[in-house]
# Entry
Amino acid sequence: MDSKTLLMAQEIFRLSHHHIQQFPFCLMSVNITRIAIQALREECLSRECNRQQKVIPVVNSFYAATFLHLAHIWKTQQKTIADSGFVLKDLEVLAKKSPRRLLKTLEIYLAGVSKGQTSLLGAQKCCGAAAPHSKDLTFTGVCDLPPHSSEGMWPV
# Structure
């Protein structure tokens, strides 16, 4: 959504590649999208949508807040992929029961990021907003991949 949530997304992405606590980032994203859509359909976000007089920005913020909470639980409780079903189930219950709490946590997190004081897990940063070990992500499109030899391949 903006540079502050981009930093959050990068930190979550790095957590998803942790050597012990790794998780499938895209699948978690799909699950959180499902939770956000269900919360909207079940009118759990109605109060906030009415307060802000907007729907899409509220759903986007709710999605980010839900992913932030997932990452916080994942890291602080040292969850692994074996815990993912339970974590998602608990996350869905919390998201539907206390959406305002999740959104407030996101606001606090983003305020800390804008001051360069907060990382994903609430740790204080010593070197400004960007972590010294952060890397730019590079994506390769399917068309950019080198062609493979067709030896040993058969038509399907």
